Structure formats: structure tokens, C-alpha cells
Amino acid sequence: MTRTIIRRSYLWFLVCLLLLGSCAGAPKPEERWRKQYQDGVRAREQGNLDRAEAKLLGALGSADEMGAADLRTSMILVELGDLYATLGRDTDAGNSFRQAVAIQEQVLGHDHLQVAATLERLARVLRRESRYEESVAALERALAIRDNAETIITPAVAATLEDLAVSHAMAGRYRQAIPFLERSLTIREAVVGPNDPSVVRTLGHLAEAHQQLGNDEGLFFSLSRSLRVMSNELAPVDSLMAAQIRAHGDLLAEKHLALFTRRTSRRQTDAKSPPAGSAGKSVTAEQEEEAVRKLLAGVAKLAAGRFDLAAKDFESAHPNLPRDDELRNELVKGYGIIGMEYYSDGRLEDAIHVWERALAVDPKNEQINSYLVRIRKSMKKAKEIAPGK
Length: 389
Hints:
Elements: H1 2-25, H2 29-45, H3 49-65, H4 71-87, H5 90-108, H6 113-128, H7 132-149, H8 155-170, H9 174-191, H10 197-212, H11 216-234, H12 239-266, H13 285-303, H14 307-317, H15 325-344, H16 348-361, H17 366-385
Helix pairs in contact: 2-3, 3-4, 4-5, 5-6, 6-7, 6-8, 7-8, 8-9, 9-10, 9-15, 10-11, 11-12, 12-13, 13-14, 13-15, 14-15, 15-16, 16-17
């Protein structure tokens, strides 16, 4: 009897040890979700998409076991959204991104850059589903977040602008797309340089928009700049081909300038309206013609990347330029591009000067006003934290 009791006690002891060992060896939920997430990401990178989905869904379940949704859950949802987008499962991708946005807004706030990044992912999925209005709305919100959170020029802002332009263009709104593409192009040229492949892509979108609108002038301008970039990229490899491409680009640039000259020469000056930069002073027809010639020269130099010389021509044209919407917009756009170039080179005072000149022509230009507000804030902050201040 005693032996039986001892034997049973021993067996129960062994069972308890086994149970304890099993409990001790089981991975904790925190460890389990992380491993499943990492395995899912690795499987996706290796092209094993079925395994990636299974692992990521497992990670999502493990994260749910830990309680309220947090950034770990949003990480998994974003990865799942990217996976579903790759698989062409746009509805599933959109749902994943929406859930991720909701969590990020709750944890990080509505104006966090992670929210912007996920909104951009969502917008691309919506665009593939031909839901252009929703895509535009998501991208407009993402752009507002980036504009508030980042400096004036970053590759991320340029990418968001281009995405927004593409969504407008795919909805048939090419005219609305052009300002976003022009701003994206200016940022890309300032940040990554005028010869980067991303510049060619943006110029391609810009050329298509002008072509759809029947605007040969804008088409020639975009294509000539694109060919110039391609020529510069090809020059180290095949100088002869690069020279031929460059020649085609120069020809298109000449056609653009000829069309621009013809258009401006046809503009009828309103004798009752003072020039764009004047304060009601009397300006002769000869002075106005000279101002238009200076504007044309500045546009040509701007296209060639000769920013300082273009700025001088614009400054000369400014006081006597006829008050004409097209001419005024060309001048403001030129000042804006030059200011961005100066800003990227660290020439902050020069950037402020040309942007102020732009506002003298168009005081309500929201973009340039926002540039000036931000640049002045950053300069003030730099002075406050400078040593010895």
C-alpha cells in the first residue's frame, strides 16, 4: 500500500515537472508576435508570399492577445497591406491600411508622419481601384501633414506631390496636376540634383499633362529638359549618343521659346492697367516690350539651370512688365523656382529676397507665403540656439 502511494506520488511529481517545463518553454506573446512578424517580412522579401501572409496573420493574432491595439499592430497591418497590394488584393490592402491609420492616429496623433506614409499607401491602392476622389483626399491630407512637419524641401514631399498629381491626371484633371508636378520637379532638382532619374519621371508626367491639354509650349519645355537630363546621364557611357539626344533637346527648347515668344507678343497690353511691378507710374510701350524680352531671356536661362542670371533678368523685367495674368504667373513661377534653388544651396537671404519679389506680384500666393514663414522661423530658431546668443 505504501509503495503504491509512493509510486503515484512520484508519477504526479513527474507530470507536474513536465507541465512546468512546458509552460517555461512556451514563448511569451511579445516574443511570439515579433518572431512571426520577422518571419513574415523575411518570407515576403524572399518571394514566398503565402508563407508571408500566414506568418503576418499569426503575428496579428499574437498582438491581439496582448490587449489593446498599439503600434505593433499597425506595423503588422502596414506590412500586410503592402503584401496584399503586391498580390493585387486591393480591397484587403485598403482595409489593412485604414486600420493602421486609425491606430496610428490614436497612438501618435493625427499629424504624425507615420500617418502620412500610411495614407500615401492607401491612396495608391485607391487609385488602382479607380477611386480617384478618395485617393486625392488621402494624398491632400498626407501632403498637409508633411508640409507642417517637415522642412520645405524633402524627397518625401516631392513624392507625395507627384502622387497627388498622378491621381488628378488619372481622373482627367490634367490642369490641376501641373502645379503639383512643377513643385515636385523643383524640389527633386534641388534635393537630388537635375540629373537624377526621378527628375526624368516627373518631367515625363509633366509632358503628358501638357500634351493632354494640347499645350505644345509646355510639352516642348518638359521634353527638352528631360532629354537634357538623359544626355547628361548617358555622356560618360556614349558621348556620341548623348550629343545627339542633347541636340534634340536643344531643338525642342528652341521651339518652346519660339512659342512662348509668339504668345507673349500677341498679348494686348491694357493701357489703363499699370505694369505688374509698378505703383501706377507711367510706362512706355517700349519699356513694356523690353520687360517682356527680359522675361523671355530669364525663362530661357532658367530652363538651362542658370539661376543667378535668370534672377537678374526677372528683376529687370519686374518693374515694367504688363499686368497680364500669364506674364505675371510666369514671373512668379520663375521667382519660386529660383528661391527654392537658393534655399537648397543654403542661400537663405537670397531665397527670401526672390520670394518677396514674387509676393510683390502675387501677394496671396499661399505656397510662397508658407515658404517665407517657415524659413524665417527656422532662421530665428537657429539664432536662438547659436552659441553665445
